[in-house]
Amino acid sequence: MDKIQSALLKILTMILLIVFTTGHSIVFANSEDITDNSLDTSAIEAFMTREIERLHIPGASLAIVKKDQVEYLQGYGISKPDGTRMTPQTPIVIGSVSKSFTALAIMQLVDQGILHLDDTVQSILPEFQLANKEETKKITIQHLLNQTSGLSTYDGQVAISQGDKTLQEHVQSLAKIQLVSPVGTQYEYSNLNYNILGAIIEKVTNTSYKDYIDKNIFKPLEMYNSYANQKDITNNTLAHGYQTIFGIKVPTEQLIHDGTVPSGYIISSAEDMANYMLAQLNDGHFNSKSILSEKAMDTLHQPSSFITHNTYYAMGWEINKEIISHNGWTENTYSKVLLDREYGISLQINAMDYFNLNEYDAIVSGLYKLVHYEQPSQFNNNPFIKYILMDLIFVIIIALISRSIIKIFKQNKISNFRQVLNWFTLIVFNFIIPLSILIGFPTLFGPLSTVTLFAPGIGHLLFIIPILLLIVGTILLGTALFQKPIKAE
Fold first, then answer.
1. pLDDT (tens digit, 9 = 90+) per residue, 43-92?
2. Number of other residues whose CB lies within 10 A of the CB of residue 359
C-alpha cells in the first residue's frame, strides 16, 4: 500500500470515528416560570424562524390548539420553488400521521357495529393470504391497528415504492410475504397493516377509501384543504416537497402513492390539522358535531403494544404517559402531531432530511416546552456537518477506487512484502467489505428502493460503490493471476 493510499485510509478512518461518535440527544434548558397563561407567540415565532434558518427548511406550517380553541396558526417560508408563501391553508402530505386517520375511520365503523376489533381480516377480505397460511387466519383488525400482526417493517417499507397499485391489488400481492413473529406476540411497525385496513374500509363500506375519509372525517371537521387523493387538488396549492441531496435542499417530485394513502399519503393543512386535533382532544367532538363516541376515542388512544421505554403503540398513535403523538415523513415532506390532553401541536414541513430527522423532531419538542412556559435549548450546531463528512468519505472512497483503476494499467516493481500487502487489501477492500455491504444491505439500510427514495444521492452511492469495488477487484485479481508479477531487484 503506497503512502498516498495509506494517508487516504487514515483520513477515512478519522472521519468515520467522528461521524459515528457524534451524539444526537436532545437536551432542554432549565424552565423559567411564566405567570401569563397566554401563548408567547413572539417566542414561538423567534424559535421557528431560527430553526428554519438553521436547518435550511424551505417552508413550514404550524398549528397549536388548547382544549377546544385554536391558539396559533402560522406559515413560514415558501411552499414552492417559485416563491409562493407557505400559509396555514397550504396542504402538505403528512406521511405516517395518515395512520391516525385510518384508525379513526376503523373505529367509526366499530362504533356503528359494522366492524368488530376481533374480526379476522380473512372474514372480511377472503383474498387476504400470506405465506404463513395458518397464522394468516389469526390476524384481526385489532392486530393491524396495534401493529402486532407479525408483518415486518421491511415489507412495509418496500410497499412505499409500490403506490401505483390499488389497495385491493396490494392485498392480493401479499401471498409470498412471511410473518416475522407469531400473530399478536410483539410490536412490529409496518405500513402494510394500515394499507390492509384501508382495503377493509373500502370493502365494508362499498366505497373508496378517499370517499369515506372525505365524507366522514374531512367534511364534519371542516377540513377544506385536506385530501385523500392528490388529484382532487385543482387549485395548485399543494406544497412542493424538497429532499436533501448531499446536504443541499432540492425540489423533487413524489412517486405515485395512490395505493398507500392509508399508511402515509393523506394531505392536509395546518388549519385543518387544528380542527383534527380539537376532535382528538375533546372526545371526538368538534363544534356541535361528534365524529366518534367518547368510549371509542378512549379505545383509540389506549396504550397497547410496547415499543420501548415508556412508549406504547395504540391505534395510529404512540403513547408515552400523557403524551399522544405520531410523526410522519415521505420522500420529501415531514409532519408531527403531539397531544397532551390539554394542548395540541401540529408541525408540517415541505422537506425531508433523513439524516437530520432528530432535528425536525426537536422542533416539536421545543414547541412543547414553549407552550408549557419553558425555554428550549438553543441549538447552535451545524446539522449539515455530517453531510460534509459523508461527502468527504465518498470523495476519498472514489479517489481510492480511481487509484485502483490506474494501477490496473500500471505495474511497478514491488517487494514480496508489498505484494502480500496488496493481496490482503485487495481481498478485504474489494471483496469482503463490498460483499458484506451488498448481502447485508437490507439489514444495514433497508430496502434498496426505499433507501434510494428517501436518501437520494447517498443512498445510491451506498449501493453503487460496493458494486464498483467488486468490479475493480475482479479486474485486479484477473490481472494479478494472468500476468507474471514484476518483482523488485
1. 999 999 999 999 999 999 999 999 999 999 999 999 999 999 999 999 99
2. 18
Report whether 284 contacts 267 (CB < 8 A). no
CA distance 221 to 112: 19
| pLDDT value for 411 | 57
Domains of the chain, by residue range, sit at 3-21+384-482, 41-371
CATH class of 41-371: alpha beta
| Span 266-290, pLDDT tens digits | 999 999 999 999 999 999 999 999 9
For 342, how many CA atoms within 13 A lie in the half-sphere containing its CB?
A: 5
The number of C-alpha atoms within 13 Å of 359 and in the hemisphere containing its C-beta is 25
Query: What pLDDT score does 424 carry?
Result: 84
Residues of the chain where predicted confidence (pLDDT) is lower than 50: 1, 3-5, 7-8, 11, 15-16, 18-35, 488-489
